[in-house]
Every structure is written in structure tokens, then in C-alpha cells.
Amino acid sequence: MKNEVIHVTRPFLPPLEEFIPYLQQIWENNWLTNNGPLHQQLEQELADYLGVKYISLFSNGTLALITALQALSISGEVITTPFSFVATTHSLWWNKITPVFIDIEPEYLNLNPAKIEAAITSKTTAIMPVHVYGNPCKIDEIQRIADKYKLKVIYDAAHSFGVKNNGISILDSGDLSVLSFHATKIYSTIEGGAIISHSEEMKRHIDNLKNFGFRGETVIEEPGINAKLNEVQAAYGLLQLKYIDNFISIRKTITERYRILLSDIPGIRFMNDIENTTHVFSYFPIVIDEQIYRMNRDELYEKLKEYNIFSRRYFFPLISNLYPYKTLPSSDPNNLPVANKIANQILCLPIYVELTFEQIDLIVSVIKG
Ligand SMILES: *Cc1c(COP(=O)(O)O)cnc(C)c1O
């Protein structure tokens, strides 16, 4: 008999009876969306939890990215990474901005700051790095270059909910940081997202943009979009927030077990914690060196499937190899050797709150062969 299906991730739904009182509150308020009371409460609680001052909730992370670019009037070219989820680059495309891809650094797979300067042209207006798997980018180096060339920095922080550097939220870096609260993310409002900004004025600007650009009842300040989070989602978010610390500590335990069990397999590499960083263990990626390990990444991916274990090749294919980006000059694989190599070696192993030690042991035994 086959074992139970193990997916790469699985949402944890809190007990239904804990959600009902929130719904009752919504029914009593008779207020469903447009900055309702639960929305306001969630913004406050998230700001406190994350240790940031200004947060604007969104209906999803992609609209938050698109709006962040609008809020800073970004145009022309933006330097970014091909090793991310397509939404990073799609947000540029929807703003008619040309993405300029640079290579990643081999250790933590984030955009390599040493490659930024050579990619800057007279059209460059911003840098959009991604804290891939929640591992912080080299924030200081990126900021130094941005300051030197007067570029904005917008972080795609979709993987970085709760990540801290020396006790300070990494969401505080750059001009804006964007979160996703999609069901597959560590903290979820089913669908949702947020922009972290650094002034009351910028938060107001962003809040206007996500509500058609209305200021008051009759004035449109700028053409905005509809990207509002509703009260039911805000309620779900408030309930999830009660569980988040527990979720993170369970994920830490899972990560530690993977690290111990996988530590002596030649050709399999995983990422260790970064010094002075508070991690949240969103993903467990491994990098497979097929020269040393007995098979390549795709062969291992298929083999795991035979055991009902669904790992994920995240991120593969590389964005620069996908339509409509693959014809861009910066998409040339010769420009992106590390990213192209890693995209063929990367595999994210299952990690979710209800994953058992027996299941982890099974996954590792299949990898060990
Ligand atoms: C999930 C994700 C997004 C998109 O967020 P949605 O809320 O699904 O729109 C953007 N960037 C990265 C890196 C992501 O992982």
C-alpha cells in the first residue's frame, strides 16, 4: 500500500469554531470591505508583530507589487533577479517597465549586488531584489549602490514574513517591501498581501492607490486600482496571527531534522541559518549536484513522486527562460550562469505544520536511496 500523499506544502486551517466568532462580528458590524474594523485591527496587529510602522493590506501580493511600483512612479528599466516567482517580473511588465536580469550569488541564491552597477543604464530607475526563501539579501550593499545612483529599492519580500536581522525586521529596508499572504505562504489571509512603507504620507498614498485613487467621496487624486482586502480575509488573518509563533517553531523543528538527516549525503546541499538572522523556515530547498549525487534533480523529483512525495522545482524554469521575458537581452543564459545552473539543481522538500517525523524520515530515506 502506498503512503499518504505528501505535498510540498499544506495550509493549516485553524479550528472552525474559532473562526465563527469573527464571522459573527462581521455580521454584527454589517461592514464587509473598505477598511473595515477587522482590517484596521489586522494592520495594527501586523505592524506590532512584524515590528514595522506603516503597513497597507492588499488583496494579493501581485497587486501589492504592481501598486508599489506605481506609488514610486517607477518607469524605464528595473534591475531584478530571474530566480523568483513570475509575479516579481509580471509586476514590472504590467507597469510597462523593462526588467533587467542580473545573476544571483551561489550561496543563498539572491540577486548578486556585485552585478548591479554594470547593469545600470540611463533608463534605470530602481532595483527589485527578492529575499528568496526568506534569506535576507545583502541589504547594505544594495542600498549603498542605490544611494550612489539615486535608485529606488523595492523588495519582493513575499517569503520574508517575520524575518529579522539583528532584531530588526528586514521589511524595514529599501523604499518599500511587499509581502504575500497567499494560502501557500507561512502566514496567510487565504489570498492577500501588504506593502510596508516608511512614512504616514506614503502609507496614505498607497492606501489611496488601492482604492481607485479616491481621496474623500468626490476627488480622484490619481488613477488607482481596486486591491482591497475584505473583512472575512482580515478575520482569517487575525486568527492565523494567534498561531504564527507556534507554526514557526514547528517549522524550525522540521528544518533541524532535515538538516541532521541530510548532512552526510554527498552531492546534496542545503542552506544553513545566516548569522544574526531570525529565520521563519518557510521553505526547505536543497541543491543537487548530479556529478556527485547518483542522479539529477529531475530524476530525484520523479523518484520522490513514485513514493507519493510531491516536492517542487521552485524556481524552475527561470523567469528569464519564460515567455515573454526570454527574448530580452539580459535573459541571455551567458549573462546568468549561476541562476541557470541552480534552476536545474534546486528542489524544495515538503515542509508544513502537520508534516510528521515519520514522513520526514521517509522523504530522506528515498533521497538516500
Ligand atoms: C507568492 C509570491 C508572489 C505573489 O504573491 P500572490 O499573493 O500570490 O500574488 C510574489 N513574489 C514571490 C517571490 C512569491 O513567492
Task: Give an overview of the whole structure.
The chain has a seven-stranded mixed beta sheet, sandwiched between helices. Strands 7-6-13 form a three-stranded antiparallel beta sheet, with no helix packed on it. The chain folds into two domains: 220 residues, 3-Layer(aba) Sandwich (Aspartate Aminotransferase, domain 2); 125 residues, Aspartate Aminotransferase, domain 1, CATH 3.90.1150.10. With 369 residues, it is α/β, with parallel strands linked by helices. Helix content is 36%, strand content 15%. The chain contains eleven helices and 15 strands. Helix 3 crosses helix 4. The chain binds pyridoxal-5'-phosphate. Pyridoxal-5'-phosphate (PLP) binds next to helix 3 and helix 4.
Outline of this structure?
The chain has 2 domains: 16-103 and 110-241, Aspartate Aminotransferase, domain 2, CATH 3.40.640; 244-368, Aspartate Aminotransferase, domain 1 (Alpha-Beta Complex).
Notable features of this structure?
Aspartate Aminotransferase, domain 1, 11 helices, seven-stranded mixed sheet, 2 domains, alpha/beta, Aspartate Aminotransferase, domain 2, binds pyridoxal-5'-phosphate, three-stranded antiparallel sheet, single chain, 369 residues
Task: Please specify the SSE layout and strand pairing.
Elements: H1 16-29, H2 37-50, E1 54-58, H3 61-71, E2 77-80, H4 87-93, E3 98-101, H5 116-119, E4 124-128, H6 139-149, E5 152-156, E6 164-165, E7 168-169, E8 176-180, E9 193-197, H7 200-209, E10 214-215, E11 219-220, H8 231-262, E12 268-270, E13 277-278, E14 284-288, H9 297-306, H10 337-343, E15 346-349, H11 357-368
Parallel strand pairs: 2-3, 2-4, 4-5, 5-8
Antiparallel strand pairs: 1-9, 6-7, 6-13, 8-9, 10-11, 12-14, 14-15
